[in-house]
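Q: Could you write out the predicted structure for this multi-component system? I'm mainly interested in how the pieces pack against one another.
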Amino acid sequence: MLDYILRRIGLMVLTLFGVSVAIFLLLRIVPGNIADILFDSAGLVDPAEKQQIITDLGLDQPLVTQYVHWIAGLAHGDLGYSYVSEKPVLDEVLPRIPITAKLAGLALLFAVCTGVPFGVISAVRQNSWLDYVLRVISLAALSMPSFWLGLLVLMGFVNWFGILPIYDKAPATWGAAILMFGVPAATVGFRSSALIMRLTRSSMLEVLRQDYVRTARSKGLSEPAVTFIHALRNAVLPVITTIGIETAFLFGGLIVTETVFNIPGVARFLVEAIRWRDYPMVQNLVMFIAIVVVLVNLIVDLAYMFVDPRIRLRA
Amino acid sequence: MAPVLEVSGLTTVFHTRGGIVRAVQDVSFSVEAGETLAIVGESGCGKTMTALSLMRLIPSPPGQITAGMVKVAGTDLLALDEASMRRMRGSQIAMIFQEPMTALNPLLTVGRQIAEMVSLHENVSRRAANARAVEMLHHVRIPAPERRAREYPHQMSGGMRQRAMIAMALACKPKVLIADEPTTALDVTIQAQVLDLIGDLRKELGTAVVLITHDLGVVAETADRMIVMYAGRKVEEGRTKDLFADPCHPYLQGLLASVPRFGGGEGERLREIPGIVPPLNDLPKGCAFAPRCQSAIGRCRDEVPPLEPKRPGHAAACWVT
């Protein structure tokens, strides 16, 4: 067991190293750096000044040197300074993290709390009108880009309620946070919810055909007991794995949704930083997101072990 | 002695796209306490569907029990509502299945699965139910039952899982035990042990056993009486000894002739029954076995033969014999 966890942590470190190299190189492949952008759009014209900026930021040094510099800083907890605001990256990012964390947490919660029950209903009532309705909705959810859904939700709110669930100031209480983030979170989580619903449904249908479900019925258990005690436990195993994978996708949805709902979170900030080629900002933010995704996946695997004795006892 | 299980006129059909599949047609039999009745036949002859009909576990739709009576200790199961039927399952009539590898829930400990049966039907504490689970595992001769009760199915061998299934099925001392091919998936040595175990527990608890199998060797060793099924119908019935000694129906004659004999002639071909079981949604008009029967006469193809006594205590459905 400990051996397994250590091996997983080793793999995590390797993954993060890969991510760091990839994001570092990708950012340099993208045409233009902060100096180019300043000179193209901000009206600076003096080539000597441009050269000065490049030298100051170390952009003229070899890539390997730049990479080592970044990682060495990271290892000391020094994330560098933003090119744009010239403030420490940490100071810029830290206040935004709770906002995105709440939004992402609520989105995931929404996805699981709707996806699993609807998947079960759909499977237990297979081929009923309810099943068809749920399947059509989930297919639509999977096909809908989240920015479009976000816009629709905004328009709907303006049209029917005359108000916008737009971020103005940080919510003080959990209740206020749920009110504030509920709609954007549902918008982000809708896709994941649909995916989880379809997965739960198919997994449940398969489990309901298993011999042990028939055994459970032959013992005289009621249908709800058969469904929840015997079938669902087995059916959620693949769903748990998906939750890990979906966290990664969630960030894509968050970028768009934070923009649409004007939420000052990490994801929207990342897009902004990419536009300015704010290398330290982008690199460190991407690393942060990668760490979150990898950690969630580790937790998911541990949860899987906890639920499935076949894996727990072999590991 | 009054029979514990009385089945009469049981008919089960499946509504499929290919038409109505008659899985079980007009099957009747009875079993006394402590007696073993074997139901014998090829794959697809309706044995398992008969068993599932007794438990009312036919998947419905498409399946439906259209006629008959299944009396356990005087109560007609087919007349019960679903809630009352659930109370009967496990407590009065229990079942063990063919595949011990898949018939137990992989995520729950074996002890918990047995205890679940107990607490479902008896008003006992969780602790008492767990104690009963250990006791039952001990009863089915599983060594170190306290430890085994805490284990998961994947930690046990096939034979041990089937014992655990038996422990579960008998945990509430049901009056009737249906064993659907209980040893088919097991090694021969384990087979004998499991059959002995079922036989011993039957004597001890006075359970009536319905043993479903295609293995005539198993029948010869364990069953007091047997019925032979073909294409959803009962075609022969009687004491096992009598049927083996003097089979009336050409189908049973064929089955017995196709059992490989040890020390038979070198290079001698195994005897088989030519042809296959007809599809149950397209049965011939007369005797379902007629197309494969070498002694069939004209009448066999037109009229279904009734089950008639041929010898004392021995009935068969055949126009010829």
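A: Regarding packing and overall arrangement: Chain B touches chain A at residues 55, 57, 86-91, 94-95, 97, 99, 102-109, 116-117, 120-121, 152, 154-155, 165, 168 (CB under 8 Å).
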